[in-house]
Input
Amino acid sequence: MVDHTQALSFGVAASDYDRFRPRYPEAALRWALDGLRDARVVDLGAGTGILTRQVLALGHHVTPVEPDPGMRAQLDAVTPGSSALAGSAEAVPLPDGAADAVVVGQAYHWFDRDRAHAEIARMLRAGGTFAPIWNLRDDRVGWVAELGRIAHLGDNAGDVLGRYDDFGPGFTPIEPGEFAHHTTLTPAEVVAMLHTRSYWLTAPADRRARIDRELRDLFAGHPDLVGRETVDLPYRTIVLRARRR
Output
């Protein structure tokens, strides 16, 4: 069951979301787009445009679609030459066959999957590519696993790879791809990034305070973090790619 309160909680933190959330490794995006050039790409659940801007930089034409008005406003403000459409994965205001590819950054788990798959298949031309993408912390690193426990960060790479095994009858079997990268942040920036997570945004004040206290203790006490002005937060970028039949 999709929690719509959490799914639509990000708009109040749109500016910090855009500033602190990690970007995607270029190799992952090129693989997701399956060798396409000058393609018509739809970015579903586009948020503040992080993925939109990176796909634009690769030379594609991108139409971002986002249900949250706060996120759309941030996307429009920081993404020159692009204007986000109001819509959801289950109801996209685009005609049949309008896209060569549909990408999703960090949002696929919010979708009503059966309805979204049918809508994505409708938008894609035959042979077009569908590719959800996740930046997931590499919790094989000890302090990163502890960070996830404190902040209730949920999905890891194993969860994603084990949970999604098909996109329905309109698509070929899923091909998984994995790419490693990291982002360098100060401890304060890590905390600010975690404040853009749905769990924190929708938590009551006492739970937020407890999370922040435990995060301060982590950075002050973990042997891999003590005295560090910046930390390299490692990620495993997971791409699930399939083509429209």
Q: What stands out?
A: The first strand starts at residue 40 and ends at 44. The beta strands are 40-44, 61-66, 85-86, 99-105, 124-137, 175-185, 231-243. The chain is about 40% helix and 25% strand. The CA atoms of residues 221 and 227 lie 9 Å apart.
